[in-house]
Design a protein that fits this description.
Elements: E1 3-20, E2 25-38, E3 43-48, H1 59-74, H2 82-91, H3 97-115, H4 119-123, E4 133-135, H5 140-152, E5 157-161, H6 166-179, E6 185-189, H7 196-208, E7 213-217, H8 225-232, E8 239-241, H9 248-256, E9 262-265, H10 267-270, H11 273-285, E10 289-292, H12 299-311, E11 315-318, E12 328-330, E13 333-336, E14 339-342, E15 353-355
Parallel strand pairs: 4-5, 5-6, 6-7, 7-8, 8-9, 9-10, 10-11
Antiparallel strand pairs: 1-2, 2-3, 12-15, 13-14
């Protein structure tokens, strides 16, 4: 079944509210959609979003990679030689993980449509998906208000952004914990905002105050692997790598070296579902659980991540709330409070474009 065409388009999607982290503030996202067409007319769709501060990929770079080396690598290939075709995506250019992820997603969508099954079914399972809701970094009172509303909306796990002003971080968590029930779990994401010693100091204080922290994500700069290990060895709360993890090779080093307790997989960082599967399996072999994460990106790419997460047994944590921040997007996921509901249509489930009320 030959790949006959590849088409790329771009749209800008406003957010319902500004999204703030220690690294950036976003009010809209750029969605780059890629569509591949098979000789029998089946179309597979994928998408990517540029995130300079994490992947280094730009809008122009993603489009250029998709329209250039990736398109050249795919046109004329037989999709039934699936692993070979995926390898061609990864080998056709250096870096460009977001563009590679978009093409990888489109291939997975097309091939599972060719087989006539939902993507999760082809990958092999369908475990329940319960996402956290992200609380963007802000003044303590505003974060507490956002946390309270999220709990009222049915979320029992909150991912709290910290790290932009470390001296406020204890106050932020105190304010949030004061207005939410004890059973609600808190995950902290410092987005590289702390030094190793400061991270240990803050996390230990939060432990003493019994804030109910489930895990802490990327407390130190991405390239400070020894700093990650320093923190991991000195606190009781599990430490998770995010920006330090881009590839299966990274996963192998992080896992075997015991630099962290947990790994956060994002398709835009690793280059797609195929590499994500390798990462989760490496982690599983080493007794380290994984989270599926998403940046501020289109519902289509988050949907692909959700199908992967539902199928892989070592994905234990789910951060799939990005589409809930978008004013409009491709309708491939449904949410029932914290529950993420996958489509049972063939592929990822991409059918229509709809606007949220």
């Amino acid at each position: 079944m030959i790949i006959r065409d590849l088409h790329v388009k771009h749209q800008t999607i406003p957010l319902c509210a500004p999204f703030k982290t220690a690294l950036r503030t976003a009010t809209e996202i750029d969605s780059i959609e890629v569509e591949i067409t098979l000789e029998n007319g089946i179309k597979g769709k994928g998408a990517a979003a540029p995130t300079y501060v994490i992947t280094g990929d730009s809008l122009q770079g993603i489009e250029a990679a998709l329209n250039g080396p990736i398109k050249a690598a795919l046109i004329g290939q037989d999709i039934t030689h699936f692993q070979s075709v995926l390898s061609k995506i990864q080998a056709c250019c250096i870096g460009n993980t977001s563009a590679k992820a978009a093409a990888d997603i489109a291939l997975h969508d097309a091939y599972s449509k060719y087989l006539g099954v939902p993507l999760y079914a082809w990958l092999g399972d369908k475990q329940p998906l319960l996402t956290c809701m992200t609380i963007g970094v802000d003044a303590p009172g505003k974060m507490a208000e956002a946390a309270k509303k999220s709990v009222q909306d049915g979320f029992r796990i909150l991912k709290v952004k910290v790290g932009s002003t470390p001296e406020l971080d204890i106050k932020r968590i105190e304010s949030i914990r004061a207005v939410i029930p004890d059973h609600v779990k808190l995950r902290l994401d410092a987005n590289q905002g702390w030094s190793p010693k400061l991270a240990v100091q803050l996390i230990n204080e939060m432990e003493r105050k019994e804030f109910g922290i489930e895990l802490v994500e990327q407390p130190v700069p991405a390239d400070d692997w020894e700093g990650l290990k320093f923190v991991t060895e000195r606190v009781n709360v599990p430490i998770m790598a995010d920006e330090s993890l881009f590839s299966a090779k990274d996963a192998l080093k992080l896992a075997t070296g015991r630099y962290v307790d947990l790994l956060n997989i994002k398709l835009m960082k690793c280059g797609g579902i195929n590499e994500a599967w390798k990462i989760a399996s490496i982690a599983e072999t080493n007794g380290i659980a994984c989270m599926i994460g998403s940046m501020m990106e289109p519902c289509l790419s988050v949907g692909a991540a959700a199908h992967f997460a539902a199928a892989h047994p070592n994905v234990k944590y789910f951060d799939l709330d990005a589409p809930l921040w978008l004013s409009q997007d491709l309708d491939v996921l449904q949410y029932n409070g914290e529950e993420v509901c996958l489509s049972d249509l063939p592929g990822i489930g991409c059918v229509t474009v709809s606007a949220k009320k």
